[in-house]
Amino acid sequence: MSLINDGSSSHGGESVVDDHGRQRSTCGYCKSSDWSSISHGLSAETLTVYDYQALIDRGWRRSGCYLYKHEMDKTCCPPYTIRLKATAFVPSKEQQRVSRRLERFLDGKLDVQPREQSEHTDASSSGKVSVSGIKTLGAATSEEKNKVEPILDDLSKRVDQGVQRCIQSGDFPSNMQIPKASLQKVFCAKRKKLAEGPEQLLYTSNIAFPIAAAIKRTQTSEKGEMNNAEENRLSPETVSEMLLSAMSKVGEIPGMSIKVCKGHINFLSDAKDSFSDKDVVPNGNISKGANSTCEGETLHAKMDSENHQAKKRKLEIHLKRSSFDPEEHELYKRYQLKVHNDKPADVAESSYRRFLVDSPLIDVQPSGDEKVPFCGFGCFHQQYRVDGRLVAVGVVDILPKCLSSVYLFWDPDYAFLSLGKYSAMQEINWVKENEAQCPSLEYYYLGYYIHSCNKMRYKAAYRPSELLCPLRFQWVPFEVARPMVDKKPYVILSDIAIPQSPLAGPTTSEYEDMEQGETNDNFMGFGDEDDDEIETEDSHIDSDPGSKDKDINNILIGLYESQYRYKDFGQMMTPAGRKQLEPMLQSYRKVVGPELSERMVYEIS
Q1: I need a surface site. Which of 23, 175, 181, 590 has the fewest CB within 10 A?
Q2: What segments bear the compositional bias annotation Polar residues (predicted)?
Q3: Alpha-carbon distance 600 to 378, whole Å?
Q4: Quick one: which of 171, 208, 203 has its CA closest to 190?
Q5: pLDDT over threshold 60, residue 301
C-alpha cells in the first residue's frame, strides 16, 4: 500500500476540496418557487490558481470558498461561461460613450455631479450654485443667488411631481431609477433653438432625455429588443409631452406658462425677464455667434472656461490583494441597500467577508522563474477613487490565462457614470497591458451568461465573446451560438463546430481553446441524460460499476493529513463503506474531470 506524503504541486501548495454533491435551490434568475436550480458544490480549503483555471474552463465558478457548477441539462436557467480575448475586444458605440462621459466628468465639463457632493459644495468659494445636482456658474453674489435658487427649486419640484404622476398612472415604469429634475436659465443665443413663439423663454429642463433612456433600458432588460412603435413611444419628445400633461394637473404657475419643444420642457413668460443674462451661467458651452448681443456673454464664457480648469478631478485605480477594508464594506452596504434593495441583515460584515473577501486561492507572487504579471496571481480588489473618494470596487481573480470578474459594487451617487461598463473596459485593458509580461494571460472572463435571463444578456455586448460548450468544453463564438440558445436554453454548443463527416476528427475554430490531452471520450456523455431520469440524487451515475471502479482508482483521497490513491484507500474500507463512497467519487470525477480528480485532494472528514 502506497502512502502519498508529498501532495504539493510544482507551483507551491495544493488544492484541497470537500465534496457536497448535488445541490438544489430556488432560482434567483427566473424567481421560480420550485427548487429548480440544480448544481454540484464543493468547498475549497485551498485551491491553486492553476486548478481553478482548469475548473472555470469546465464551467465552475466560486463564491468565496464555495465552488459550484450547474447541471446544465437539468437546471432551470442554464448559465454558460463567457469570455473574450482582450486583444480582439472592439468597444461598441455605447461603451465608447461611457468612456467619453467619464472623461468629461474628470475634465469638469459634465453638468451632472454626485448629489451628495452637490449638496455640500461651497458655492461662494468658486462662484457655483448647486440646484438638484446640476452645476451653474456665475458672478455669484449672494443677492443674485437668492433670486434664482427659490425659482429653480420650485420649478424642479413641479417637474418631479409630474414625474411621480406619470409613474402612478403607469406611463413610466415604477422599477427604474429616475434622476431628479434639473433646470437651467436660458440665454439669448440659445432661446431660438429651444422655443418657438413670441414668449420670453426663461428656464428649460432636459429631464425627458434621461427618463426616455432609463425607460428604454428598463423595458429592454425585461422584454429584449423593442419594435419601432415602442422606440417612438420612448422618445424624449413623447416623454416631455407626458410630463407636460401631468404637470398641468399640479397647478398653474402665476405669470408663467409651460411648453415643450424638441424634448425640452420650457418655462416662458410674456413679461420682460426679471433677471439679467449675467445672473447665472449654465455649465457648458455658450454660443458666441457674431450676431450675439447678450450682455456679459463673453465675460461669462471666459469664467466658464477658467472654472473648468479649476474643477478637474483625478481618477485613481488601485489593485490590492483581497482583504477586509471597512471603507469598502461601507460602500458595499450602500450599494446593496440602494441598488439591490437588500435588507440590512444581508449586508453584515460576516456575510460580506464570506462573499467577497474570503478566498481559497493560493497566492502566487511574481518571481524570476515564472512569467506572471507584476501583481502575481490570486484574488484582488480593484479600487476606483475620484479625488480620494472610493466610488467603486471590482473584485477579480487573476489566473494564469485570464482576469475573471467576480463582482462589482459602486457608489449610488455616481450611477450616472455607468461604472459597471467602465470598470469592465478597464479590466479588459488591464489584460492587454499585462499580456506582454505574462503571455498566457489573454482572456477576460465575465462569469456566467444566462440567455434565458434578460438581465444577464448585457455581457454579450462585450465583443467578440465566446461561450463554453457544456458537454465538450470547447469555446464557441457567441454569434454562432446565439441562434441555438434563442431556440432553447440548454444546447450542446460545439455540435455546430464539429464536422459531421465520420472521417474527420475534432477541429477547433480560432476562438476555441481546448486543453491539450482532453478528448470527447473523457467527458462520459455529460449532459446526455433525459430530464425524466431525475429521481434520486445519484440517478445520473452510470450503472456499470466495473468500468467506474477503474476510473476512480487514481482519485487522490485526503484523510487525517495523509493522502492515498483510491485503489489503495479502498482496501482499508469495508464493503459497505466502499459501496457508499464510490458513487460519490464517480460523480466527483465526472464534474471536475479525470485530470483534476487525480490532482486535487478529495478530503474525507
Answers
A1: 175
A2: 1-12
A3: 18
A4: 203
A5: no
